[in-house]
Amino acid sequence: MLRWLLPLLACVRIAALPQDEGTAYDGDPYHGAAGNEMSCKWTCVVFTLQWPAAFCQSLDNASLCTIPEHVDTWTIHGLWPMKVQQCCRCWPMFFSDVQELHDALQEWWPSLLKSRSSFNFWRDEWEKHGTCAACVEGLNSPLRYFQTCLKLRGRFDLRKALEDAGIKPSCDRPYKLSEVQDVLAPLLGHACEIECVQDDKGREVWFQVKIRLSRNLTVGCEHAAAAADVTPISQGHPCPAQGTFYLLPIDRRRPSRPCD
To answer: 186-205, pLDDT tens digit by residue?
Structure first.
């Protein structure tokens, strides 16, 4: 009976903590918590990188988009265990949890929305997805989760791979899905997903890359669920297998209209 009380006791303990960004929580609600067993049955995780110029195109209100001065390449969108979300509401995140990573996170995982601070972006990702990943060693705290995401960002250097192959941002040069896949497959495997959105001119523009990883964070996932069983996590759709799409340049002054 005690095992079933542990999640509740964890909630009671957290509720007593001061709710501010300076208070860290170092508990582990997964340790012995039977209520979270189903949340740990995921086998695949998706590491998603987004292209800032196309993120602006994905918004219903493009005026909300902002691209920080230092951002000129792919940024992190998230690390998402498949088929599960918001697994443990009893595990909050505070600024002190990731304070030592702040500069690196601000560089590689900034908020691109005027209405949301970077910390709020990170906290949302932890609460929605990180708590589901936390049952795996190496991801079992906000600090470890974000450290791992930063390591993955360094491991998957899309910009270098694409530039080495002559694939660079352009308002005029379209690309085919097959040529992009040929370049990225040696780095990301063949199961990566190349997603697009439409810009205000109706053109397909490259939005993000979803890299499917196994539970131990190796590329690929043999037990990947069927697409129909996967809950959509973000905007975007598969880039056209036929036809072309664009990799828009980043324009910080006009983030939503880089080609005007």
So the answer is: 999 988 999 999 998 999 99
Q: What is the largest CA-CA distance in the chain?
A: 65
Q: How far apart are the first and last CA of the chain?
A: 65
- Cα separation, 257 vs 260, in Å, equals 6
Q: What is the DSSP-derived secondary structure letter of residue 82?
A: T
CA distance 116 to 93: 16
For residue range 87-111, list pLDDT tens digits in order.
Answer: 988 899 999 999 999 999 999 999 9
Q: Is the Cα dihedral 10, 38, 208, 217 positive or negative?
A: positive
Q: Which residues, 6 or more positions from 85, have their beta carbon under 8 angstroms from its beta carbon?
A: 128, 129, 132, 231, 233
How far is it, in rounded angstroms, from Cα 127 to Cα 112?
A: 19
The counts of H helices and E strands in the chain are 9, 7
What would the two tokens of residue 139 be? 């991801």
Distances (CA, A) of 173 to 118, 125, 169: 32, 34, 8
Cα torsion through 134, 138, 142, 148, rounded to 10: -120
Q: CB of 77 within 8 A of CB of 208?
A: yes
DSSP string, 175-224: E-HHHHHHHHHHHH-TT-EEEEEE-TTS-EEEEEEEEEEETTS-B--TTP
Q: Annotated catalytic sites, by residue?
A: 77, 125, 129
Extract the tokens encoding 22.
């300076």
pTM beyond 0.70: yes
90: nearest Cα among 29, 23, 155? 29
> For residues 10 and 61, what is the distance between their CA atoms, to the nearest angstrom?
39
